[in-house]
Design a protein that fits this description.
15 helices, alpha/beta, single chain, about 15% strand
């Protein structure tokens, strides 16, 4: 199947991290039975509503709970640890589950610092964005304001040793490749010769896309986090691509937020809390525990709140299985994606499992 899953191990309102992690293990087993190709775990820190803070640990647990599905990171934030530590962690998991592990890597410290120093995009209030081949490309979100939030600067300081400097991302990726292939002057054990599939994740046409293309690695582009720049990211990657031992041609996976239910009204009800959850992220609080539809109804939205989350709400795919599958096919066609990476969050675990099940059935039928 050309559908894969990104799981944040969300903690629901009234739930615990233990509940979220047990739900992740259950969903991974179900996803394998539904036929999904990959199961990726995100890395988030200081988020009350997200339990996936240590991808390598969680990947090992998910791999142990499943038997066939590929399991990986979406993504390890390389600015928080060294290339050696990442290769050793993933090499250890690969030693037990060879040929099933994906090492997805993203930028973190560098990206935050760059955004904080960047001027806001020249976007007029109320700009509607554009539609390309039926796919909405909204106006860009001003990440610089969020990146400059004092909470995030404080959290970033806790994720590195005092005085540590994050090397250039390209240099770090080259070290990861060298450790995996055994061409580094030092040898990672476990890690050297591991069968892990190396991916680069990116939200724009910047360094991540460039590095992935120049090194001939597969690339994952974020439509669900940064929908305004997904086409720019994919195009930059393809333009930079050079064939490698890993890939003869570019290979792209594109992410999307979805909620599927048997009817539109139920899907919309399940999707209600999403805006409130995104608001907590974009105000710098960190992802809150995922609200109930009732908690979402109780929130009084200001015009500023609505503008803060509009691009994410407008680009989420919500509806019946056939309707969502059709919109995902549009996303795949417009971006030229080889795979899609879908992420679904609902307050109740059973609704999330059912959403993935319904989507798999509709997608398999259309494919």
């Amino acid at each position: 199947m050309t559908l894969s899953i990104l799981d944040l191990a969300p903690i629901s309102s009234g739930g615990t991290a233990r509940d979220a992690l047990l739900n992740t293990l259950d969903l991974a087993r179900r996803a394998e039975s539904f036929g999904y190709h990959r199961y990726w775990l995100a890395e988030h820190h200081f988020a009350p509503g997200v339990a996936s803070s240590a991808p390598a640990v969680l990947i090992g647990l998910v791999a142990a709970a499943t038997s066939r599905i590929r399991v990986g990171s979406g993504a390890v934030q390389l600015g928080h640890q060294t290339p050696l530590s990442v290769v050793e962690q993933f090499g250890l998991v690969d030693a037990l589950y060879p040929g099933r592990i994906d090492l997805g890597i993203g930028r973190s410290g560098q990206r935050r610092a760059e955004l904080a120093a960047k001027a806001p995009p020249p976007t007029a209030d109320g700009e509607a964005g554009r539609v390309v081949g039926g796919l909405l490309i909204p106006p860009p979100f001003d990440w610089s304001r969020l990146a400059a939030h004092p909470h995030l600067a404080f959290h970033a300081s806790l994720l590195q040793q005092p005085g540590a400097r994050t090397p250039d991302f390209a240099e770090q990726i080259d070290d990861v490749i060298a450790f995996l292939t055994g061409t580094h002057e030092a040898h990672a054990v476990p890690g050297e010769g591991a069968e892990v599939e190396l991916w680069i994740l990116g939200s724009s046409g910047g360094q991540s896309a460039q590095v992935a293309g120049e090194r001939g690695l597969p690339f994952a582009a974020n439509y669900h986090v940064s929908p305004s720049s997904v086409l720019e990211a994919v195009e930059a990657y393809r333009q930079a691509f050079k064939p490698s031992k890993a890939l003869a041609e570019p290979y792209v996976i594109v992410s999307a937020d979805v909620v599927v239910a048997a009817d539109d009204a139920t899907a919309r009800e399940l999707a209600k809390p999403y805006g409130l959850w995104v608001r907590s992220i974009r105000t710098g609080e960190g992802a809150r525990t995922y609200p109930t539809p009732g908690e979402a109804d109780a929130h009084v939205w200001s015009a500023g709140d609505l503008a803060l989350v509009k691009d994410r709400i407008d680009t989420r795919f919500v509806g019946t299985p056939d309707a969502v599958a059709e919109r995902l096919h549009v996303l795949r066609k417009v971006t030229g994606a080889d795979e899609l990476l879908v992420t679904t969050i609902t307050h109740d675990h059973a609704d999330r499992v059912r959403s993935y099940e319904l989507l798999a059935g509709a997608w398999d039928g259309r494919s």
